[in-house]
Amino acid sequence: MHGVPWTLLAWEVLNAGSDHLLARLDWSRSDLLAVFPFRHRLEMKATLAADCLTLETTLIAGADSPVPVTFGFHPYVGLPDLPRAEWRLQLPALRHLMLDRAGIPTGEEDAFAAFDAPLADRHFDDGFAVLEEPAAFSLAGAGRRITLEFLRGYRYAQIFAPEGKDLMALEPMTAPTNALVSGRGLTVVEPGGQFQAAFRLRVD
User: Fold this and answer.
1) Least buried of 71, 131, 189, 190, by fewest C-beta within 10 Å?
2) Structure confidence by residue, pLDDT tens digits, 101-124
3) Residue 28: which of 2, 3, 65, 71 has the closest Cα?
4) Is this model's pTM higher than 0.70 or not?
């Protein structure tokens, strides 16, 4: 929740076990509504298996108004003991979001062919529209593969691989940057309705 101190986010644990956690966040307090003025409830379930972590998020809109859906995650990954230049990045075919000088999407898109090559000296800080669900994004090398699977609800992605840094982010997003202002790619949940999204991070 950008712009909201974590101390204000009072998650309530509903159920917990050795391989799962279910928590709820009630977005109805006045201090939270001052930041994002739409009453809703979030329920998030994390499920851990031997080779993967699955995160499922459900947004339940309040009864008084629609709720725009604009959340995402920032999973950072890397491959230890292997030079960044030798990391192999695999991306599905996507639509590349064109940006203005301020880094805001203009609404124009270009085709982006499926990518499967060493990262080498390439760097990314790019937004994309996802063409199909599920979609898989992978980083591989030295006998290991890390895959981020968009299972449902995430129609956009941000790929961030900064130059000279041994890390990258494969970020699932429900809407593109600035969607609350532009309305482009924005899903709106009607009062009392629900929106569900899920992604999985797998290590092979």
Assistant:
1) 190
2) 988 999 999 999 999 999 999 999
3) 65
4) yes
